[in-house]
Amino acid sequence: MKTMKFLYPLIPLLLITSFTEYASRKGMIPTFLLPAPSQVFLVLKEDFGSFRDAFLQTLFASSLGLGLSMVVGLGFALLLSFSNLVRKMFYPYAIFFQTVPIIAIAPLLVIWLGYGLPTVVASAFIVSVFPVIANSVLGLLGTDPLLLNLFKMLDASPLQTLFRLRVPAALPQILGGFKIAAGLAVIGAIVGEFISGSGLGGLVDTARNQQRVDRVFAAVLLAAFLGILFFSFISFLNSLVLGQLKEK
Amino acid sequence: MIEFKGLSKIFPQTGAGLGTISTVIESGEWVTLLGPSGCGKTTLLKLVAGLEDETSGEIRSPFQKNEMSFVFQESALLPWKTVAQNIVLPLTLRGVDEKVALEKARPWVQKLRIERFMQSKPHELSGGLKMRVSLARALITEPKLLLLDEPFAALDEPIRIELGMELRELWKTLRPTILMVTHSITEGLWLCDRALIFQGQPGKVVLDQKMDLGMDRPLSLRGDAHFLSTVEACFNLLKGES
């Protein structure tokens, strides 16, 4: 049954790729618009080295961006949950990070940080940090009032209440935020790479300029694979941690 | 002793809460608070515990926070901790080593018969067991003041009776002051030395009933004619209110 769970999503994928392959070979769709899946895999195979390097670059930058989001976002959420005043002062800026279109500020990042890894990491961070903050704050402030009263009765210090009650109680929400951030970090990194010209984003940009749709698809495929990889890793982490809290 | 002097707590939105109360709770006394929902019984417990601020009046209490324990209506166990970790929580928060705390918990764990479940998680326990764990956690600090807010409300009658008798036995050993809220007139009167009957919204004490039934409270006492007449009197008093 477990194997079936993984097989089900493959059915539509198989149907779509088979149809695209058929339509492309029969000339029903121009290959400069939608290449045959076999062509995309051929490109991937032929230029494996550059795709692998680009993939690793994006993987590295997204990981750094996601890691930064997790650490900074959670730290910021802890601060926000600690005091009403701090929350009122700084939460609007967290929302700012969510509303600002990354594509609009990416050129600014290049001016500030140059054409390289820092810009890509910053872009991945900006896009992925908000879900971490929002989910963590939601979880940290949603602690059961009964348990809060218990900790008050036990004369727990604010720090004890935070780390021994609020944080463990908020873990499902915090990890939920990490899960959303994982996918967004890849998107953010690729947007940063569009501008800075590196990684999968850079590869997509170059291929687009060369009208090489097959290479665009190959890069997009790898980007999607990267997103799934991140998501799966966080989901694994999620089940590992939440396995300890079953009944929640 | 705890002294309530013109104490009140009114919730502005509803006008309900605790009306003015002035009385004295003697040290080592078991006082049951009876009355309809919303008459301020739980509010009184929270005021004593410092979980609410009074609207007027004052509480004179010799008990510090670390001398009190509160058993809530729900067991209030941390779901990610084991039974053992939940029980020793009050001590580990005070910086006591977990092993030392567990040693200290041992007599209560034995008395409440939860040794077998020490490594279980709360979701693996029945309602009765959860309340036992909650009681063990409240008793591990050997509190001088025990605040019980409908501790047996979610339990079946046989378990309520059993836990009530266990609690009475523990009280005989420790002799803490107990303030217990309950909706069960029979149970409340059976266990206590004194009952305060509340009525109205905001609630006021309409009857201060001594229960001179002796130290031991066997189950058979609940069938005693004198006891039953007191239960009936309280029932009639509260009947008009509900």
How many H/I helical runs of chain B?
Answer: 8
Briefly note the structural class of the backbone of chain B. Answer: alpha/beta
Strand content of chain B: 15-25%
Give the helix level of chain B as a range of percent. 25-40%
CATH architecture of the largest domain in chain B: 3-Layer(aba) Sandwich
Q: For the terminal residues of chain B, how far apart are their CA atoms?
A: 32 Å
Tell me the span between the first and last alpha carbons of chain A.
26 Å
CATH class of chain A, please?
Mainly Alpha
Our count of helices of chain A gives 11
Tell me about the biggest sheet of chain B?
A: 6 strands, mixed
What amount of the residues of chain A lies in strands?
under 5%
Describe the 3D structure.
The complex is a heterodimer of chains A (248) and B (242). Chain A is an all-alpha fold and 248 residues long. Chain A has one domain: Orthogonal Bundle (MetI-like fold), CATH 1.10.3720.10. Chain A is 84% helix and 0% strand. Chain A is built from eleven helices and no strands. Chain A has helices at residues 2-7, 10-25, 37-46, 48-82, 84-99, 102-113, 117-141, 145-153, 158-196, 199-209, 213-242. Chain A is elongated. Chain B is an alpha/beta fold and 242 residues long. Chain B has two domains: 1-63 and 150-242, P-loop containing nucleotide triphosphate hydrolases (Rossmann fold, 3-Layer(aba) Sandwich), CATH 3.40.50.300; 76-143. Helices cover 35% and strands 23% of the residues of chain B. Chain B has helices at 41-49, 83-87, 89-92, 98-111, 127-139, 157-174, 185-191, 225-239; strands at 2-10, 17-25, 30-34, 56-60, 68-71, 145-149, 177-181, 194-199, 204-210. In chain B, the strands form two sheets. Chain B has a six-stranded mixed sheet with strand order 5-6-7-3-8-9, sandwiched between helices. Chain B has a three-stranded antiparallel sheet with strand order 2-1-4, with helices on one face. In chain B, helix 6 links the parallel strand 6 (145-149) and strand 7 (177-181). The longest helix of chain B is centred in the C-terminal third of the chain and has 18 residues, at 157-174. The model of chain B has no long low-confidence stretch (mean pLDDT 90). The A-B interface holds A 144, 146-147, 149-156, 160, 164-165, 168-169, 171, 244-248 and B 46, 49-51, 65-66, 68-70, 72, 74, 76, 78-80, 89-90, 93, 121-123.
